[in-house]
Amino acid sequence: MLIRFxxxxxxxxxxxxGVDAWxxxxxxxxxxxxxxxxxxxxxxxMRKRVFGIMGFVGYHxxxxxxxxxxxxxxxALCREAIGVLSAFLREEPLPEPSQFFLDQREMVRAHHRSxxxxx
Length: 119
What we know:
6 helices
């Protein structure tokens, strides 16, 4: 599912109609993905990590990223989640978050702090 989402993002048309279609597909995908992960036995930590990663997908708009930057952002998040899922399926310890993900997460958090800071 994550691989299909990566491809859908890469081929997204950058106009209002294309963005609307992508958003609608993303909502449908996230509901299906959410349901699929909840039926995985003994997957609590994996679900927490994957949902934590994929929860950052929508922040590209808030951060003012252009179409190319948004595609790279979403692709990187999908690859991060794929790494967690792959380790889980191989019954290996879940990998630590990548430096890229930690940097992006901090960028989002800093953005939120700047919005909350008094002017």
